[in-house]
Design a protein that fits this description.
3-stranded mixed sheet, globular, single chain, Butyryl-CoA Dehydrogenase, subunit A, domain 3
Length: 620
C-alpha cells in the first residue's frame, strides 16, 4: 500500500518527450562551472552519514515482515504497521535522492554510480518486505477496514485514501503468491524495451550526412540536431535517410513492439482487466472517457493544426509544405539570458498567481537547490527531484542561454513549486501528486511566461518569435502527443481483439495518422511511416497521452489565472496544494475542470486559434 519511491519525477519522461518532438531539446551552449551548484549537505553532511543511514535502513526493513498477519487485529495495530512502513519509505526516498543526485553530478565517478545502485537495492528490499500488505488489506475486507479508519484519527488523516484505493482495486489484486509471481515476470517483460533500445542505440546502421557544412551521424541524437537545418534540401535528406534507417528494421522493431503490447495485455488479463488501457487507467481511477474525449476532440480540432502548417509555410517563405519543414524556427532570436534574468522573468510571469506565490518563489529560487549549467560528465536533460520530503526539492538542469533555457527554468521550477505547496499542505503519505496532474503546474509556468513575453515584445519579429514558441508548444505537446496516443490505442485494440501485429501493419496505421493529422497540403514520403519505431514512449505503457491532457489542463488554468478572478486563481492553487490526496481526475474537477468532457480540449484548440490570429495579423 505504501508507495515505495518518490524518485526524480520527469527524467525519463522529459528525455522521451524531447525525443518525440514534444519538448525542445536543450542546447549545451553555455560554459559551466566545474562543480554542482546545489548543496546536498541539506540531505546528509557527508557520504559517511549516508552510508550509516543505509545500514540502519537495511537493518530496520526486515522487521516490517514481522507485522504480517497483524493488520486485522485492531485499528492501532494497522496504524502501527503503516506508520512503520511510511517512516522507512520516507527515509529510503531521502537516501535515494542523495545517491541519485550525486550520481548525476558526474556520471564518470564510479563510487557515486555504485551508491545509486545500493540505494535502489534498499527499495528492492523494502518492496519485498511489504509485498504482503495489499493482499492482507483485501483479505480483511471493506467493512472492517472502514471501521478501523473511523476509529483511528491517524488512519483517517494519513492512510484512509490509500486503504480505500487498495479496497477499490481488490478485484484486481492477486494472492500474495500470485503477486510475487507476477512481480518476478517484470524482468522478462521488460525485454522488448531492452531489445528496441539496443537496436536503436547500437545495432541499426546510421548514415553520416553533411548538414550546414558539418558531418553529422544520423542516430537519434544527430537527427534532433539536424532536422531543423536551415537548408531545405538538407532537411529533406535528413528525414529521408534517418527514417530509412528505421524502415530497414521495421520487421524486427515491429516484433519488439508487438511483444511489448502483448506483455501489457498479459499483465492486464492477469489482473482481470479486459484490456491494457483499462488496466492502465484504473490504477489512477481515470475514466476511459478522458482518453477517448482527448482523441475525439483532437481530431475535431485538426483544421486549426492544418491552418498552422499553412501559416508556417508562409512564414518560412516556402512554395509548399513538407513534413521536413516542421522543425526550423519560424523566427530566429539571438537574445540571450543570464540565470539572474531567467529568475526575474519567471518571477514576473507568475505574478498572476498572487503575492504569496511570488514571495515563496522569489525566496526558494535564491537557495542552493539547483544545478543549472551543463558540464562534462553531468547527466543530460532536466528534472525536479521531490524525494526528500523533510528537506526540499532539488533541480538538475542543463540550461542554454537562449529561450529554450528560459522555458526549461520556468518549467522545472513549476514542478518544484507544486511539490512545495503540496508538502506544506499534506502529510507525507498524501503529498506525492498523481501523474495525471504532475505536468500541470510546470506547463502553466511555461504558458504564463510565453504570454508575458508576447505582451512585452516591442518589435514585430520579436513578437512573432514568442508566438511561434507558443504555437509549437500546442502542436508538439497537444496534437503530436495525441497522435501518439491514438496510434497506441489502435495497436492495443488490435491485440485485444486477437489480431496479429507486424511492423508493416504498424507503419500503415501510423502513416494514416500522419496524413490525417498533417492534412492534405503537407507532403509525406512513405518511408516516414517508420517514425513509430523511434518513439520510446510506446514501451512505457499508456503514458504519452498525459502530456496532451497536462497541457490541456495547464492551458485551462493559465487562462483562468490570467483572465479570471482571484477565486479562479485560488481554486487552481488549491489543486496544487491537494498533492495526492485524491485521484488526479477528481483533483482537477475541484478546480472546475472536467477532463472527461469536450470543453477543456475545445478551449486549448481555441487558444491555439487565437495565437494563430495574432501571428497572421502581424504578417498580413
Amino acid at each position: 500500500m505504501i508507495e515505495v519511491s518518490r524518485r526524480e519525477m520527469m527524467v525519463a519522461a522529459a528525455a522521451a518527450a524531447a525525443l518525440a518532438g514534444g519538448v525542445s531539446t536543450i542546447a549545451i551552449a553555455q560554459a559551466a562551472s566545474s562543480s554542482a551548484a546545489w548543496d546536498l549537505t541539506d540531505l546528509y553532511p557527508n557520504d559517511a552519514a549516508w552510508e550509516a543511514e543505509r545500514q540502519a535502513l537495511l537493518k530496520a526493513i526486515p522487521g516490517l515482515k514481522a507485522q504480517k498477519g497483524t493488520l486485522g487485529r485492531s485499528a492501532a495495530a494497522m496504524r502501527a504497521a503503516f506508520e512503520a512502513q511510511s517512516d522507512i519509505n520516507k527515509r529510503a526516498s531521502r537516501l535515494y535522492t542523495y545517491a541519485s543526485l550525486k550520481a548525476d553530478e558526474d556520471r564518470r565517478v564510479a563510487p557515486n554510480q555504485e551508491r545509486k545502485q545500493q540505494a535502489q537495492d534498499v527499495f528492492t528490499a523494502l518492496g519485498e518486505a511489504t509485498a504482503w500488505t495489499n493482499p492482507e488489506v483485501v483479505a480483511i475486507g471493506a467493512k472492517k477496514v472502514n471501521a478501523f479508519i473511523a476509529a483511528d484519527p491517524v488512519l483517517r488523516k494519513k492512510f484512509a485514501f490509500a486503504l480505500r484505493d487498495v479496497l477499490r482495486l481488490a478485484p484486481h489484486t492477486l494472492s500474495a503468491t500470485e503477486e510475487a509471481l507476477l512481480a518476478s515476470a517484470g524482468t522478462p517483460l521488460a525485454g522488448p524495451s531492452d531489445i528496441r533500445d539496443q537496436l536503436a542505440s547500437s545495432d541499426i546502421p546510421r548514415p553520416t550526412v553533411k548538414v550546414d557544412g558539418k558531418d553529422i551521424r544520423l542516430d537519434d541524437q544527430g537527427y534532433t540536431i539536424a532536422r531543423a537545418a536551415p537548408n531545405r534540401a538538407e532537411r529533406k535528406m535528413v528525414f529521408d535517410k534517418f527514417w530509412a534507417s528505421y524502415k530497414a528494421f521495421e520487421s524486427s522493431l515491429g516484433a519488439s513492439l508487438a511483444a511489448q503490447v502483448k506483455g501489457d495485455l498479459f499483465r492486464a488479463k492477469a489482473r482481470h482487466y479486459g484490456s491494457a488501457l483499462q488496466a492502465s487507467l484504473d490504477g489512477g481511477n481515470l475514466p476511459e472517457t478522458v482518453y477517448r474525449s482527448l482523441i475525439a476532440e483532437t481530431n475535431r480540432g485538426l483544421p486549426v493544426l492544418h491552418r498552422y502548417f499553412e501559416l508556417r509555410r508562409r512564414m518560412l517563405g516556402l512554395p509548399d509544405m513538407g513534413y521536413w519543414d516542421i522543425y526550423p524556427p519560424l523566427v530566429k532570436s539571438d537574445r540571450s539570458y543570464t540565470l539572474a534574468e531567467m529568475r526575474q522573468l519567471t518571477i514576473d510571469a507568475v505574478k498572476p498567481l498572487g503575492p504569496d506565490y511570488v514571495r515563496e518563489f522569489s525566496d526558494v529560487t535564491q537557495k542552493k537547490w539547483m544545478d543549472p549549467l551543463p558540464r562534462q560528465g553531468k547527466a543530460s536533460g532536466a528534472y525536479m527531484n521531490p524525494g526528500a520530503f523533510d528537506v526540499h526539492p532539488y533541480l538538475l538542469l542543463n540550461l542554454s542561454d537562449k529561450y529554450d533555457g528560459l522555458t526549461t527554468y520556468a518549467h522545472e521550477w513549476g514542478h518544484a513549486m507544486h511539490s512545495l505547496l503540496a508538502n506544506a499542505a499534506q502529510p507525507y503519505e498524501l503529498s506525492n501528486y498523481p501523474t495525471f496532474t504532475a505536468e500541470v503546474a510546470s506547463t502553466a509556468h511555461e504558458l504564463l511566461l510565453a504570454n508575458m513575453m508576447v505582451e512585452r515584445a516591442q518589435a514585430k519579429e520579436e513578437k512573432l518569435f514568442y508566438l511561434g514558441q507558443i504555437m509549437e508548444n500546442y502542436r508538439g505537446t497537444f496534437f503530436r502527443q495525441s497522435m501518439f496516443a491514438e496510434f497506441q490505442l489502435a495497436i492495443n485494440d488490435l491485440a485485444t481483439k486477437g489480431e496479429g501485429l507486424s511492423g508493416e501493419k504498424m507503419s500503415a496505421i501510423y502513416f494514416d495518422l500522419l496524413k490525417r493529422y498533417h492534412g492534405p497540403k503537407v507532403q509525406l514520403e512513405p518511408v516516414y511511416a517508420a517514425e513509430w519505431a523511434y518513439i520510446q514512449h510506446f514501451y512505457f505503457g499508456f503514458y504519452v497521452w498525459q502530456y496532451a491532457t497536462s497541457i490541456t489542463a495547464a492551458n485551462f488554468f493559465a487562462q483562468k489565472v490570467m483572465h479570471g478572478t482571484p477565486a479562479d486563481r485560488d481554486r487552481y492553487l488549491s489543486v496544487l496544494r491537494s498533492g495526492g490526496s485524491d485521484y488526479g481526475y477528481n483533483l482537477l474537477k475541484t478546480g472546475g475542470l472536467d477532463m472527461a468532457t469536450a470543453e477543456p480540449y475545445r478551449l486549448i484548440v481555441d487558444s491555439f486559434s487565437k495565437v494563430l490570429d495574432q501571428a497572421e495579423a502581424l504578417i498580413a
